[in-house]
Amino acid sequence: MITDLRLLLGPGKTQILTRYVAWTLLYGVLSGIAAALLVPVIADLASGDWDVIDNHLAALAIVTLAAGVVRYIQTVRGSKAALQTLTSTHQRLGDHLVSLPLGWFDGDRTGRLTRVATDGTIMITGIFAHLLAPLVVSVAAPITVTIALFWYDWRLGLATALSIPVLALAFRFAAASVARGDARNHAADVAAGARVIEFGQKQQVLRAFGRSGYEPLEQTIEQQRRIRRRTISQAVVGLSVSGLAVQLAVTVLMLVGVWLALDGSLAPTTAVALIALSFRFAGPLADVSEYAGAIRLAGNDLRRLTDVLREKGMPEPKVSAPLTHPGQVELDHVTFGYQTPVLRDFSLTIPAGSVTALVGPSGAGKTTVIRLISRFWDTQQGAVRVGGVDVRDLRTDDLTSQIALVFQDVYLFDDTLAANIRLGRPEATDAELAEAARLAGVDEIVTRLPHGWDTQIGEGGAALSGGERQRVSIARALLKRAPIVLLDEATAALDPETERYLQRSIRQLAKHSTVLLIAHRLTNVVDADQIAVVNQGHVVEVGTHESLIAADGAYARLWRAKSTGQGWRLSPGASRTQTRAWCSRA
Ligand SMILES: Nc1ncnc2c1ncn2[C@@H]1O[C@H](COP(=O)(O)OP(=O)(O)OP(=O)(O)O)[C@@H](O)[C@H]1O
């Protein structure tokens, strides 16, 4: 746990934790000494030895006072350490997440991450407020008491020391059973959470098919209930075993004390005082048994957090290499796949200042090309160069400053329309914002919105239509004025107005930038300087509209199919589904 906390704090900040643990340890030792000092005080009282009782009482008072002061310092340091850990956890998590390849966020990882971040934050506060100090004290005080028992009578000390490994085993067992259950609970909770989100998001489809329930969700919830029941029964067994072990240790210590008193080795009052002291040994240990489960749970949550930090990010240079061909993009014999290969030996050069269109059937790998240029993933073979430099030799901020992205699925933040566009270049003036909005046709939307520019456009831009969202996204790109614009045209049919604005925006973008356009409508392709036809992960043809028509290859077939309304086929290998999908878009 301490290793995980140190990792969360990050280099240079771990001494705050070390100092806190040291103060807590000191408090535990002082508590143990205070308890041990009760033995001579009780013995003095019983024997009526008033000459020395004052000394023992004074020592007890000093140690108790010191324990109080140390406790105060330890609590203050605990709050500071908790705050510091929370702050650096969020910071380090944020810094690390941006370095992870986007592929990492696939599947249920996003749901898992949300849970890890929420639970982890609560758990860090809990660790400092309720766990770490009691744990350290519950271990330090009994060890001090054991040493004191050795000091008073070695036989009692030995009996106490021998019970420690037995108790440790019992606590381990309890903690392990709770932790195992927690791991299962966590997996079940994540699965149920993901299904609930899916259920919410897919309401439209479910209702369209007249489904009120959702079987996968019901099954996951039932599974979650079963796992929780099993976990509780296992935890009860573990905690009972450790509780029993503590009771057993106390009984053995009492018997040894009684035996020593009957034997005459110890005065009865000293024996009673030592038995009382052995309770001070067992009490905190019993707490450890209770904390055992909570500590393991906290450890699990912490480990899930630190596992994210241990996840390998994409390597980045400290300083970016200088651009040799500003504005140019090149894919050089690139091979890449997610689970299965998507691009195979893919080569394409997009000259600076040109407009290049990528066309091809659905699933050919066009969006993947854009993702690799933006370094959402690294290639498995070959290189992607932006401005003549391998993207792996550019720092993320330098790469992103070169690129403006317009995705098919435009994500709008739950903020005002103006703020959503300003995201492209936060320091842009109002006039620049208005100009970008005008070119992309957003100013028309503004007049329709109830609060104009200040209208909150809702999470995911729910208040805007698909076409309107694309316009906002294009306005962002126009505002950014990046040297390279990567535009994944919406597959859904755009209204003629949006279509017109899109073409106007492309022309405007092309004045200052290199444009790579994934085109689903041939109207946007004809004027391109270069058209690359992609099929099954390869570039099968490159040229202008005229040269490709003259070559009478795949592009020409597509063009004819569009004109005659018949199906088109890039190659004999292209599936009918791909063909139909392409037709419907073209
Ligand atoms: N995150 C991902 N994980 C796994 N496979 C993926 C992922 N993204 C895309 N793919 C797969 O990679 C292949 C290429 O997808 P890509 O989105 O690049 O195609 P595309 O040509 O842009 O298609 P479309 O025209 O339909 O947008 C497809 O088979 C797709 O299922």
Descriptive overview:
- With 586 residues, the chain is of the alpha/beta class.
- The chain folds into two domains: 309 residues, ABC transporter transmembrane region fold; 250 residues, P-loop containing nucleotide triphosphate hydrolases (Rossmann fold, 3-Layer(aba) Sandwich), CATH 3.40.50.
- It is built from 18 helices and ten strands.
- The strands form two sheets. It has a six-stranded mixed beta sheet with strand order 6-7-8-3-9-10, with helices on both faces. A four-stranded antiparallel beta sheet has the order 2-1-4-5, covered by helices on one side.
- The chain is elongated.
- The relative contact order is 0.08.
- The C terminus is likely disordered.
- It binds adenosine-5'-triphosphate.
- This is ABC transporter ATP-binding protein/permease.
- It is a multi-pass membrane protein.
- Its main location: membrane.
- GO terms for molecular function: ATP binding.
H/I helix tally: 18
Kindly provide the radius of gyration, computed on alpha-carbon positions and rounded to a whole number of angstroms. Answer: 35 Å
User: Overall 3D geometry?
Assistant: elongated
CATH fold call of the largest domain: ABC transporter transmembrane region fold
Unreliably modeled segments: 565-586
Note the run of SSEs as H and E. Answer: HHHHHHHHEEEHEEHEHHHHEHEEEHHH
Biggest sheet record: 6 strands, mixed
How many individual β-strands?
A: 10
* Strand content bin: 5-15%
The span between the termini is: 58 Å
Bound molecules: adenosine-5'-triphosphate
Q: Supply the CATH superfamily name of the largest domain.
A: ABC transporter type 1, transmembrane domain
| CATH architectural grouping of the largest domain | Up-down Bundle
Q: Structural class, please? A: alpha/beta
Going across the biggest sheet, name each strand in turn. Answer: 6-7-8-3-9-10
Considering DSSP H and I runs of 4 or more, what fraction of the residues is helical?
55-70%
Mean pLDDT: 81
* Top-tier CATH class of the largest domain: Mainly Alpha
Number of domains: 2
Protein name: ABC transporter ATP-binding protein/permease
Domain ABC transporter: 303-561
Keywords: ATP-binding, Membrane, Nucleotide-binding, Transmembrane, Transmembrane helix
InterPro entries: AAA+_ATPase, ABC1_TM_dom, ABC1_TM_sf, ABC_transporter-like_ATP-bd, ABC_transporter-like_CS, P-loop_NTPase, Type_1_exporter
